[in-house]
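Objective 1b: paired records.
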Amino acid sequence: MTVKGINVRSLLFAGFVASYLMYFIDNYFAGFLGLFGAFPGTGSIWWMIEHHIDGIIFALIFAWPLMYKLLPGGGWLKGLIFGIIWTVALAITSLIAGALGATAFEQMPMALKPFVSSLLLHSAWGFFLGVLYTPPKEREVVAESRM
């Protein structure tokens, strides 16, 4: 099913699986080189549901046709670059919002180790997102625009 140039089924699948793999990598490598183990509240089912919903919503930005076409390379490289851009944008947003007194961002310290963990995890999320997401074929987008 294609909506506004986005393959919705592929987006849902890729966003969900990439989010789970991000969580799995964090748990598997927890403590490795003093990194990872960054996921708070993993014992809560509601936190996990929220994490997967976020992964799908943020994957929507990746799958947006303009963004997808702007990113260079094939699917995996597009995803990897998107994951890196996403992490840098998150760090900048956290820095600015925290400096302006936003209490929600006080819980997100961006010291070197948490930043490196976040960068590696979001890069993995983006990589898997890029591998798993299949954009719609050109004829599907043309057919959708005729409706």
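Objective 1b, second protein:
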Amino acid sequence: MDTCQTSHNPESPTQPSPTSSNPYARTYLPASSEPPSSSKPALQTVWLIFGATGHLGRSICRVALARGDCVTAVGRNLPGEEVVMQGWHQMCQGLVCDVRVRDTVSKVFGSALEHWGRVDVVVNCTGYGIIGACEDQDEHEIRAQFETNLIGAANIFQLTLPYFRERGSGMYIVFSSTAGTLGTPGLGQRTAYCATKWAVEGLAESLMYEVEPLGIKVTIVVPGLSRRDEPDENLNGPAPMWGHFLLKPPADAYRATNSPAQHATRMIDWLKYKEPTSAIRIAEITWELGHSTHPPLRLFLGGHAVEAIRDRLRSTIEEVSLSLVYFFDASWWWWWEELFLAGMGISDMLTRIEDWKHLNFKGEDEGGGFLR
């Protein structure tokens, strides 16, 4: 069994660092997250990274290895991938699995524990989508996206959580995308794939509330469109652009070039060489997350992600404001009647509406039946 030490070794024995030789020369996370620093150096950490053969996963592996951490890199169950990953670095264990199959996830996790003696951070970079209008995707294609993206994430959570819970610490870093908040026509990433990402974010956020009291951290990373920083990188050959998506030809109803369903294809053509966010920069920030004491629930990386989510939230706030006007205008008389009968004031009513946040609903026999 190889073991990771508890001290940080900033020198990579076999692979040059793609980043600064001093990992603390620049930090990206706010001080409130308590990221590692020269005054509080990072301890050597064991990473279990699913989706390690994608360009983001590989970049995270490179940064973690270059900064002296230990990595179990998990790739797709394809011929030769395990051997390739095994040759990345002497402190890298290369494995393959199908996240849809619980047994393979369990075996990978058990192998990582046996190899390193512990696992500190679990990263999920896996993703699969189909580019095409919703109507063009059949039941099996939609199911395949949910099984990979949602069920795969649930398998990773459920099979690693008992270990983290028993030891009282651990961290999950879950990679989502703007597809987890935005809907865009014509891209599996924004229809069925989009639905899977919304589901994954809901799962991860709910999990965070459950496991935070147990000392376990969860962060959802939402990167913008990212570029590969290593065009000559030979770890696993060049990854094809949009390689984890299957492109389907559009049906006749959506074939027109100005069709909303073709928006995704037009967007991809325009963005081919305009991905503004550095994959290595994302990996550096992910490394900081893995070593932070108080990581955020969500982290938006890159101008595309920040502006896209900000625009969506602005629209949502406007809709909420309109909904409040509709609600209190049309039903105000009913609320006053109920408030009078219940002997409640307006502040009590608003508190009652917000009770769901604290999971303390009152039953009928406790005077909580005034809401219809």
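The chain has two domains: 31-315, 331-372. The two ends are 61 Å apart (CA to CA).
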